[in-house]
Design a protein that fits this description.
Layout lengths: L1 H13 L1 H6 L13 E6 L5 E2 L2 E9 L2 E2 L9 E8 L17 E3 L6 E5 L3 E10 L15 E5 L1
Parallel strand pairs: 2-9, 4-5
Antiparallel strand pairs: 1-3, 3-7, 5-6, 5-8, 8-9
Length: 144
């Protein structure tokens, strides 16, 4: 167990480069019909540089990272991410992959003016995407 936690910590600190070389972790099965979605802002919205993002979840519950309770996970917000995190690997933790491992269901972001994409991905207790992935639709916001 200590080795697994150390490997996860190293992968998180080193980002996706190390995670890409790490062996795949067992994927947690997603309950049938599970959905994650962005409640607010709406797709195509024009927002200020400080924007509150509200997370929605159906068919599952939210639990903090490290808590292995069946049918639960925690949110990760992908900001301007072009390629989804690798299956079987912990979701990277950086400026584009924001972790909400305390079970948070909203956040306030500071975004530069311009167009940005937002997408949610639910991770299991080890920050690994579910199988099949529980992903929201990608939305676009315009920051003034």
């Amino acid at each position: 167990m200590k080795r697994m936690l150390l490997a996860l910590a190293l992968a998180t600190m080193a980002g996706s480069a190390l995670a890409a070389d790490a062996p795949a972790l067992p994927a947690t099965k997603a309950p049938a019909g599970a959905e994650v979605y962005i409640i607010s802002p709406k797709d195509g919205a024009t927002v200020g540089q400080e924007v509150t993002v509200l997370f929605g979840l159906k068919g599952m519950g939210v639990a903090p990272a490290g808590v292995g309770k069946e049918g639960t996970g925690h949110h990760h917000l992908l900001v301007d991410v072009k390629e989804l995190p690798a299956a079987g690997q912990p979701i990277p933790k950086d400026e584009q992959h924001l972790h909400f491992g305390n079970g948070q269901t909203e956040t306030t972001l500071k975004l530069a003016p311009g167009t940005h994409t937002l997408q949610l991905e639910l991770g299991d207790q080890n920050h690994v995407p579910f199988d099949p992935p529980v992903l929201s639709r990608k939305i676009t916001v315009h920051v003034k």
